[in-house]
Structures are given as structure tokens and as C-alpha cells.
Amino acid sequence: KNCYGFLRFSISMKKVFRQSVEFLFLENNQMLFVPKKIKRFKNLQIIDLDNNKLKEVPTVLIKLRNLEELNLSKNPIRKISNNVKRWRKLKKVVMANNQMDKFPIAFCKVKTLESVNFAKNNIKIISSEINKMKNLKGLILYENEISELPPELFQLYNHYLHQSLREENYALWQ
Question: What is the model's pLDDT at position 59?
Fold first, then answer.
């Protein structure tokens, strides 16, 4: 009888734990993949998978609907799946020190992104699709092989500047 009560308590504590975890730091391991059970962390907002052996953005992470920050730096990632556009709350992506040779267009479809870091890759071209990133406030691209910036990047800057000025003026008149 006592064991049954403890077992019920243990199972319910697991559920509470899964629902309360908001950040998970798994950097500096030798992970080749992310376990599918990670999707049980329904409220996970930040995940750090820096310095592992991941070759792609793990598809199981797409199921994390509350994810706001993702760090996949120092992994041998070359390409990004179009599935990343499913994130509805993602604000920050850090994918420095990977092996991407193209600016990941799929992230241009994540409308909530405010900051992206693709430094120290092999990126040569920034797509004109970047103009879809209307909430972008920070773009880090140093130590790539970029020879030219698309005009759309400057249009994006003008949109952000206009938005900021409008918000400041609104605040002044309240």
C-alpha cells in the first residue's frame, strides 16, 4: 500500500518536473542527436546544445512550442530544415562556429526572431529573404565569406528604425 502511494507521488512529480523546466543546458557533450523525450518539456524556453556533434537542427526541437532561445554553436551543422518556420515564440538563435555556407533562409520565416548569430561559418551570400525578419534587432555575421550585402538588409534596418521612432514618439505623448 505504501509503495503504491509513493509510485503515484513519483509519477506525478515527474509530470510537475516536466512542466516546470524552462531551460536546459547540454553544452560540451558528445551528443549526436537529441532524445525524442525532450518534447515532454512543454514549457522549455531556452536550450543550449553548444559544442556537441549535431549535424542538423534536431527535428524534435520543433515540437518545443515555447522555445525562445536556441544555441547550436560549435556543431557540424551544414543545412537548416524548413521545419524551423514552425517556431512561434523563438526570439534568439545562436549558430556560430558551424559549417553553413548559405544564410539559412528558413529562419527568415520565423517572424518572432529578434537576434541571430551565424558568426564563424562559411556563409557567402545573404538572401534577399532577410527582409521578412521584421522583428530583427541583432544580426551577427562576422568571420564568414560574405562579399556583398543585399539592399534588403538596409530596408530591414529602415523598417526597424521607423518602428523604434514611432514607439518613442508614442511613449513621449502618453
Answer: 92
